[in-house]
Every structure is written in structure tokens, then in C-alpha cells.
Amino acid sequence: MKAACIQMNISLCSKQENLERALSLAEEAVSREAELLVFPEVFSTGFCYDRIGDVAETTSGPTLETLRAFSREHGCILAGSMIEIREGDAPGSEKKVPSQYNLGFCIESGKLAGIRRKVQLYGPEKEYFASGDSISPIKLQKYGLSIGLIVCNELRYPEVARKLVLEGADLLVSAADIPDFYIYPWRIMSFSRAIENQLPHIACNRVGKDRYSIYPGGSFIVDGWGRVLAEAGTEECVLLGEIDLVKAKELRQTGSILEDRRPDLY
């Protein structure tokens, strides 16, 4: 299976510009026979806190509709995250919950295959996003795969990836928005999640800068041994890597990491 990281610059709050950039890079990816394309975290807006209510959308909104059309046309799989409008609080609720989610999504052949709202929020995200309440892989038709979608900061919690794997994920996909000061921990943790779960990992980060940080890219694709299959530099690009699904399955069958766990002790 040929996978692609859409390592792109993100212009803060400029939805149309970002979507056009993402689709241009996606066109390049599918022209090079990519089947699974991964976008960075909140790829269409960045963390547009100043106008978050204006840029947030539902799953039937124009951003995912555009991606569905692209996926339908090219018969490909698209994954990433965006800002979603959350339904309001129930009448009489005393607790004020933010009106948005950081929504992880996966689209296959024009259909929304699944969503997973980010459960581990970081820093100021907690003021603007409600936390998701479920961790499950997204099942695809192609190759009978299940994707374990991880949204940025969730990578810091091994329990998130492990739960995805225990529920049947065949590969891990990370949509990230990692700044320069945290790129080395992110890289190490990305490798670790692959090795400790014996699964390939497609880790997609953004590039560029905004008022908050500088983003160095460094997206990569590794196998279940932690061997690098493809790696990007610091510029906007389409990173492609070939994942051998047969060998990935064989690796999981030759080890007993999951079977040898001691949940009675930890």
C-alpha cells in the first residue's frame, strides 16, 4: 500500500487557501499512485482561536464535502483533523463546555468511513475544544484494514495507541501540528508507538510558521520494527512510502507483545 504524508504549510484562519493547497498536494500524491493520504492536524484552518466559531464546521460542511468529492474521484483514502462545531449543552446544564471539537476524520472512496474526536487536549486547546469520549479504530473496505487515528498530543499517551491496537487497528496514522521545540520528543514517541505495538506508523506534521510557533515538518513513515520507509525534511512536500501489508501482518504474528501483557499487574 502506498501512503502519503501531505506535509503542508497552514495559513492561520485562511480556510479556502489551505484547502486549495491541500488539494493541490493531494493531486500530486494520487498522480504518484498514493492510496492513503494523511493531512496534518487542523489542516484547513490551523488553531484559529480568534475566529474559531466562524471556521468550525459540521461533518456535512464544505471542507469534508470537498474532500469526499476528491476521494470519490480518485478512489483514495484521506485522513486528518479539522475544527468541528459541537452541539450545544443540554438544557439546565451548569457546566460550560467549549463549542468545538478537534475532529479526526477518515474518508474512503467518497464516504466518511469514521471519525474520532481528540481526547487528549493540550494547553490552550482545553479552552476552545471539548474533549472526545471514545477511542476506536476506523474500519476501511480497502484491504480489510482498520486505521488507528491519533490526533497530535494523543501520541504522548501510550494508552491511546494501545487501545486502538487492542481493538483491531492494523496501522497507526498521526495528524500532527508539532512546533520546533517539541519535534525530537514527537519523533521518538512516534517511533515508540510503532515498535511497542508492532505496527506501521504514518506520522504527518505541518511546516511553516504562525504567530505561535515555527513548524519544522519532519514527517515520516516507519514499519513495525521502527525502520524508516520514507522521511521528509523541513519544506512543504508530498512524502510517499510503500507499506508492505503482508510483512506487517507477519510481524504481528511472530511476536507476542500483546499476548504477554500483564493487565493483572498494570
From TrEMBL:
Classification via Gene3D superfamilies: Carbon-nitrogen hydrolase
Entry keyword set: Hydrolase
Parts of the chain that traverse the membrane: none
PROSITE patterns noted in UniProt: CN_HYDROLASE
Superkingdom classification of source: Archaea
Domain CN hydrolase: 1-245
Protein name, as recorded: Carbon-nitrogen family hydrolase
Classification via Pfam families: CN_hydrolase
A single GO molecular function term of this UniProt record: hydrolase activity
InterPro entries noted in UniProt: C-N_Hydrolase (IPR003010), C-N_Hydrolase_sf (IPR036526)
